[in-house]
Design goal:
single chain; 87 residues; alpha+beta; 2 helices; 4 strands; globular
Amino acid sequence: MLNGGLIKVTMTRVDNDSINISFMDQGCGISNERLSHIGEPYYSLKEKGTGMGLMVCHKIIQVHGGRMEIKSMINQGTTVSVILPIS
């Protein structure tokens, strides 16, 4: 967030078997075109980025039986939700 803003982290119980940890920012948002490529290997907008970070995070979450969802709106921000099983 270039001009500052808040990042809100919440944790809620989805049901008896899982929790949702959400990270919400007030940034510039991500276009639908770019959002469709998030998590792909080697996809990065950073000059020196490798494009491996979110892919690795996604795989770790999957190995633990969870999933990651990303929702974004231009000029409103992005929410990343990590849904994990309770065990």
